[in-house]
Amino acid sequence: MYNKTPLTKxxxxxxxxxxxxxxxxxxxxxxPEVDYYDIAVFGYISAVRSYLAREDLRNNYAFSTIAFKRMxxxxxxxxxxxxxxxxxxxxxDKYEHLTPRTEDSPEDIYIRGECATIxxxxxxxxxxxxxxxxxxxxDIIKLCEQSGVGPEAITNELxxxxxxxxxxxxxxxx
Length: 174
Prior knowledge:
By secondary structure, the chain is mainly alpha-helical. The chain has 10 helices and no strands.
């Protein structure tokens, strides 16, 4: 999927000139830069290669059109691969055990600490914020407002969080 051949000088110059399209794409689609830049950039580079290699593309389309389509494809493939790995429906009830209690046993404190470590080490900042807000029963509309991302990106982030549930439940079951 990824071409590891270095860009030519012409391709590199063209890519640098239009680099702002990557950020425009991420912002327009509501994808957090920290989570999706590394995915979108491969689509962008692929678009640069294709656009400069094919005269028919240059004659019929703006580069931004080709770049947005290619970045969308790469991000969608990544999201699908991530969701295929999760294969579990996200449920906020699974995090009930992380809420504070008045009387905690040492074992409860240890397990919650281990869960918090997994969350701290594995989730992106955006995913942490979304998880925190969902644990506070914040609805999707308010989630979008408070996190600054769109509903589609929220759903994608929730799928990423879901992939960690098996690790959390292994600790609880132990």
